[in-house]
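Q: Predict the assembly, please.
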Amino acid sequence: MTVPIEHGFVLVALLWAIGLIGLLARKNTLFMLMSMEIMLNAAALAFILAGSLWQQADGQIIYILIITVAAAEVGLGLALLIRLRAHVSDLNIDKLDELRG
Amino acid sequence: MNSLGLFYVSASIALLASFCVITQKNAVHALLYLIVSLLALALCFYLLGAPFAAALQIIVYAGAIMVLFVFAVMMFNINQQDIERESQWLSWQSWLGPSLLVTVLLVEVLFILQSQPAWTSTESQVTLIDAKAVGSLLFGPYLLAVEIASFLLLAGLVGGYHLAKALPHKPVNKEVNQP
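A: Predicted assembly structure:
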């Protein structure tokens, strides 16, 4: 009946890797935000797994905090994308290379 | 089917849907796959003994946050030209070599993890952690974290309002054209 905890952490690693690949491979900022959502979800699953392993509710508390961070991040990120679309009429991340150090 | 099989099925659905998210050309299709991935993860949470987190995942994540995404995509007005350019950027030939090599590494890591002794020696059942335990802990020792989270949400609200409201002056790029 019980789920082996190692398999759960393998799932966490795979999901996080998929999110990272998406973040690196895509040039559309909207898809990059979605990849970050996948990575945040993988981290949340890791906390739920740890809470289930030690049979404590702390994992779910951290999960709720992660959801809070994700909500704030998505709100601000999408507002920035709307502003970006208004400025350069594009979502291409390569259009943002004007800042030369 | 026992809960172990259910966990594997939902985990595979989550992996497949996440892979489809990062390979889709159309943003709306990718969002649909992302919602499927979040729902599959919610089922995983439930099977791991966290029904409160599963409910939150569906209500807050797959509900509220994804609706925000869909509204934003609607405002971006993505046309056929954008989709064709996405498929131009996503040529699978350039990713074939690295992904083959990294798949070999992944198989190796999975093999090593499989040969390790199990972390939990006792074959314990999944213990249910209900909303009451989470709530009493959340408003007990973690009260300060809740307050800080509310500050964070307030900052997100103010920042989102400030960034997304209409510009008082014209955008920078258009001022260049006008003498």
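Helices of chain A lie at 5-25, 29-54, 58-88. Chain A touches chain B through 68 residues (CB under 8 Å).
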